[in-house]
Design brief:
The protein is an all-alpha fold. The chain contains 18 helices and no strands. It has 2 domains: 2-192 and 262-493, MFS general substrate transporter like domains (Growth Hormone, Chain: A, Up-down Bundle); 202-261. It is 82% helix and 0% strand. The relative contact order is 0.15.
Length: 495
Amino acid sequence: MGDAGANLVWRGALAYLAVFYTDTFGISASAAALLFLVVRLSDGVTDIIMGMIADRTQTRLGKFRPWILWSTPFLALFMVLCFTTPNISPVAKLIYAYFTYIGLTLAYTVSNVPYSALMGVMTGDDLERAKLSGFRFAGAFTGGLLVMGFLPDLVAYFGQGNSAQGYQYTMYLFAALLTILMLITFASTKERVQPALKKQTSLKYELLDLSKSLPFIVLPLLATTLFFYYRELYSGLFFAVTMGLMTIVIRKLLSQDHSKLSGSQQDMVDLLTNKPWLILLGMGFLTMMFNGIKYGVIAYYFKYYVGNELMAGQYFIALLVVSIFGALLTGKLAEIFGKRTLFILSLILSALFTIAFFWLPSDNIPLIFALGCSAEFFAAMMPTLFFSMLGDSADYSEWKNNRRATGLIYSAGTFVQKTGGGFAGALVLVVLAGYGYNGMDETTIAQSLEGMKLLMSWLPAAFALLAAALMLLYPLTTEMTEKITEDLAIRRASL
């Protein structure tokens, strides 16, 4: 229920916010692309901070559950505001879009980082986590189904020709449902894994300590954003210099006596020396690029290439129904093949089905649906395996260092989802803008169709194949994961 509620926001924003901004709200594709990058990348910094706050939260309700309760009203409010079109000037509209989108992502961070970490403390068994992750993402795809499957029809029904009104009224409905689902989640979950207590300083001290390191987090994000968006000589030089400096700083940090480091610095060192987590960080970004590009272009693809805007909703429904089965089967398949092997197979097979879209004619609807559903069945396993394996990397950190920062480790999951989603959404808009697309000028549509085909096929598939190659380096085999689980169980029982 938690993921069903969260994905009323996440899947809705990911699938429809770009087309809402360009075709209803009235923002240009290039301005919307920059908006997506700036907000999503800055939001990644708040994910890290929220992970630290959640790890240091101590209440009678638990570490992570209270944040679900406290954040829900704000999440519902900004969900509505983000899809509201005020009658103001173009400049004021852009300012309003930044304010509401930042508000939505902040509220989502406060809710979803602790919620994601909750899975890591509901069970200490790695196979149970895989099955739990399957149920989680079955709920996620169900929530996404409600938004992506029915949003176009609901907008048409409530708007009666006025899409701005239709979006706003539809979000009233989804915000109410979101509130109910998140309250049920808060009331019906339990935190069971209690790691060994470690000496802690105050949260205020930890946040002040983190603030000293923020430039080393913000600068790489800024350099990557400029390099991706502008692709000029100065942005390339800034990117190269920044990454070189970051390498020097990281090496210096790792060479210091760890006993003299602050709590937040020790957390960072633990992450930087956690090879499974580092590989998963890259995997999360690449798989989010793969899925984000595909989902971000669907509304455009059906509206202009296929020529049937409402069919996008039917396509989303088909994908998400298949996704539910893919997520639920992941736990069983992971037992048979192992998580690492299953991850590689799902990436390769989904990429191959996706590449085939490049040669599909616009009128072959059955084949479009068949290939899309086949690719999505395997794509649904990717986030399910990813978040399950984040729990394994948290176990690895506790096993290796006797320290566990579940919230911080899982904040990486939401971090790469948001940064990957931001880059994916921006890439869709950058490619369309490169082909001359303007949502307010119908004469630009024909020349942009080739870009839509690439965004449905070769571009996302390239990220999936790169992720499959990276997964070959993942060190946690089934046997090693079982040993870590058994050792930790013995260690915790002796406390």
